[in-house]
Amino acid sequence: MTLSSEEPSERKPIHRMLGVIIILAVTLGGFPLHGTAAQTLDGENMNLPVRLAQMVQDLSGEEETPAHDYTNDPRVEAIRIFFAEHNMPAADYAEAFVRAADENDFEHVFLLAAIARWETSGGKYLSNPQNTRMNNILGYGPKHYSFPTVEAGIHYVTSVLAGNVDRMAHYYADKDLKGILKSYNSVRHGYYDKITSAMDEIELLAQQISTDTTNIGEADSAQSVEAKLAMNL
Question: For the chain, what are the domain ranges?
Fold first, then answer.
C-alpha cells in the first residue's frame, strides 16, 4: 500500500510543537527545579517535566485507558454467588480472584476460585486450629507456606500458574489446563475433574448473570422509548 506524501498543512505546526516539547522535557527532566513558580506552572503541584509530558499527551490526543469497573463484573458476581451458595468465606475475595487473573493475563479466570473450593473448602480451613498456612486460601506450597494477606496469596499463586514467576515457570508456563493442574496437585485422585467441574459451575453462573444484565438493560431501554413516545402523544 502506498502512502501519500502529502500531509495536511495544519498538522505540521503540531508536529513541530511536539518535537520542541519532547526536547524540553528530556532536557529539563535531568535538572532539579527550584522555586514554587517552576513547580506550579498551572497552579498545581506538578514539576515542569511532568507537565510537559502531560502536554505531549494532550496534543497527541492519547487518553489513558479507564480502570475496569469490577463492581459490575459478571465474573466477580459469579464467584461471589458460587462461594456464598456453599457458605464459604472465599465469597469475600471474589474480586481478588478476577483482578489477579486480569493483571496476569491468565485465561483461566475461574481456576483459582475452583482450587480454593477444593484446597481449603473455600477458605473454611483457614480458621482451623490445625492450619499452618496463614492466609493461604489456595493451599499452595509446603507446610507453613503463608502470605501476609489472602489477597496477596491469590495474586502470587495466580502469577505462578500464569507462568509469570521465573523460578516456577518451567512447571506452568505454556501448559494447558490439564498440565497446570498436574503440576499443582498430582497426588489427589480425580483432582482435574473436581476443579473443572467447579470452573464450569462458575462459568455458567457468569453467563446467566451477563444474560440477565443484558435483558435488564434492553428492558430499561424499551421502557425509556415507550415513555418518550407517550410524552409526545
Answer: 12-60, 70-215
